Amino acid sequence: xxxADPLKTTREVAEERNIDHTTVIWHLKQIGKLSKVYGPVFxxxxxxxxxxxxxxxxxxxxxLIDLGEEFSxxxxxxxxERNVKGHGIVFSNGKTWKETRRxxxxxxxxxxxxxxxxxxxxxxxARCLVEELRKTNGLPCDPTFILxxxxxxxxxxxxxQNRFDYKDQTFLNLMKTINENIKILGSPWIxxxxxxxxxxxxxxxxxxxxxxxTNTAYVKNYVLEKTREHQASLDINNPRDFIDCFLIKxxxxxxxxxxxxxxxxxxxxxxxxxxxxxxxxSTTLRYGLLLLLKHPEVTAKIQEEIDRVIGRxxxxxxxxxxxxxxxxxxxxxxxxxxDLAPMSVPHAVNCDVKFRNYLIPKGTDILTxxxxxxxxxxxxxxxxxxxxxxxxxxxxNFRKSDYFMAFSAGKRVCVGEGLAxxxxxxxLTTILQTFTLKSVVDPKxxxxxxxxxxIANVPPPYQLCFIPV
Length: 469
Description:
Blueprint: H1 10-17, H2 21-26, H3 31-38, E1 41-46, E2 49-55, H4 57-66, E3 73-74, H5 78-84, H6 94-109, H7 118-134, H8 144-160, H9 169-185, H10 188-195, H11 199-202, H12 207-232, H13 242-252, H14 263-294, H15 296-309, H16 325-338, E4 347-348, E5 353-355, E6 358-360, E7 365-369, H17 370-374, H18 417-434, E8 435-439, E9 451-453, E10 456-458, E11 464-468
């Protein structure tokens, strides 16, 4: 077996092994096949830019966890970089990234923001969610819109203090811009612009890029408008939401000319929270319901556990999760199975790094194959099969796994991981406490094969009936 030289071009590799280098570029799902030939560390070229691919748990762990600081830089994404200009959490680097991430984590983890905890907010949204589902009257429906509203509203509650009605036009506009931007970022033309950023100078107002720009401007302007309202009623001793916490920090650092707490950073950070916290959670919920329709025996076991631990007359809370190992296992298995972001978001090395006898130059982009970790057949027997037993021991207790990297790992692990875990547990548990799920076709005929959209796996379209218990 020949290992690919990390500094060897995709074209050279193709010539050696008769691999079409365009296939390497456009079909990253083939990374697993390439790793069997070239090992866990190899290079592909996007245009003229080398990108090192890490495949398998050991290589990913060694980079993101053992050498976390060295691999903590965000990889290049020129289309977005022109919009965010170094601000926010997801695509920032250096001091801006470290300070903004630290603040955001601290704020999201602070369950005592004002007088309401984040769990209170999620529970309220769970109740609103099931009331919206009741309005379907047990008739077949596509759950996409409703399941998108719930996590978006949680983010709105955390950022703006209040949730929106699902028919509120401002709320619908925010959701529309977020959904459009996610689709645009996964489109082929945007991928071309990222690979050949020089084209941005020749086609700065292509439809996709212009739409991305105007949508981003809409969210930023809305955040600024709400920020001005917050400034007028701010009580530094009683912060109501994320914006209040940020404004208080701005006031504390008003004499620091190098401060990261600026209006520009606030608007981009909020946009990051919207984008990352809405689409990923709603897609996981939608995919999860499809898998539960496909496997009614799993759904029945969850509902038996709900009846035994919670009953039907009180709202689920996070304390319940420790007494519900099967539900915990199902939630982990849903995320493992669907493999939402197969290659995660690109990383980069922030210095020259010697990695497994290879020298990776500073600034080189890094792609980590989360698929190779989540679908490792030694850790998860029959990884292509949906089986909650992957996360249960022989006694039926929940079994943790280091291979569970659905939120990535290391210093760039998802900031909203804790919130997402809470939403998935409370939303799905509340839905299954309230409704029986009924498929409109024979469960055996349901297709759970992911439909790839851009850089994410999404479920195929489907309908179901929510029958009140």
